[in-house]
Backbone:
């Protein structure tokens, strides 16, 4: 049983999570949070901690951002988009139990004072920005590091905010680029 409570978007997400792990979940019902839902999340946050596990799409990112502003010490888990897509639909409910367990094994917490370790210019130099396959490479590295997919600005912010070390980043980059060769 996970100590933290998982925050997911819907009932189907809760069912998918429970096929993967033993955990308590709170569903947001999408972006339309009720006062009661926010009270339940706040109570879980104070008592046990929360892990935000939203869909890897723009709606999920908006929910994650909203919750992170209110619960800054929340933990974050990301399922890669390609592992959360089936039948032309994307979401936690589409992910396999293994994909959910992998995401939960790479949980990250935002740092209060993000570092300035990584830059957008560096991403260009490493072909993670501006190239034909840059988006795919960022997606694969984000999956390996457990920080999810993002455009260059989001990717750099997550690298710096989630405490990704230079060694972790270079190892992920090496593994992804050697696997693509």
Residues:
């Amino acid at each position: 049983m996970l100590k933290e409570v998982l925050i997911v978007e819907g009932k189907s997400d809760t069912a998918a999570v429970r096929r993967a792990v033993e955990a308590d979940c709170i569903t947001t019902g999408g972006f339309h949070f009720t006062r009661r839902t926010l009270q339940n999340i706040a109570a879980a946050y104070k008592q046990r901690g929360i892990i935000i596990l939203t869909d890897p799409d723009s709606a999920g990112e908006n929910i994650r951002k909203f919750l992170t502003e209110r619960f800054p010490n929340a933990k974050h888990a990301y399922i890669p988009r390609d592992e959360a897509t089936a039948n032309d639909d994307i979401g936690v409910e589409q992910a396999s139990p293994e994909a959910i367990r992998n995401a939960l094994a790479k949980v990250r917490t935002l740092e209060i004072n993000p570092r300035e370790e990584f830059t957008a210019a560096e991403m260009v130099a490493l072909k993670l920005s501006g190239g034909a396959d840059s988006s795919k490479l960022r997606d694969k590295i984000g999956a390996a590091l457990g920080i999810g997919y993002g455009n260059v600005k989001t990717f750099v912010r997550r690298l710096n905010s989630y405490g990704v070390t230079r060694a972790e980043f270079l190892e992920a980059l090496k593994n992804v680029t050697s696997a693509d060769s």
Observations:
- The mean pLDDT is 94.
- The chain has two domains: 1-110, 112-181.
- The radius of gyration is 16 Å.
- The helical segments are 11-20, 35-47, 58-70, 97-105, 120-125, 134-145, 152-161, 166-180.
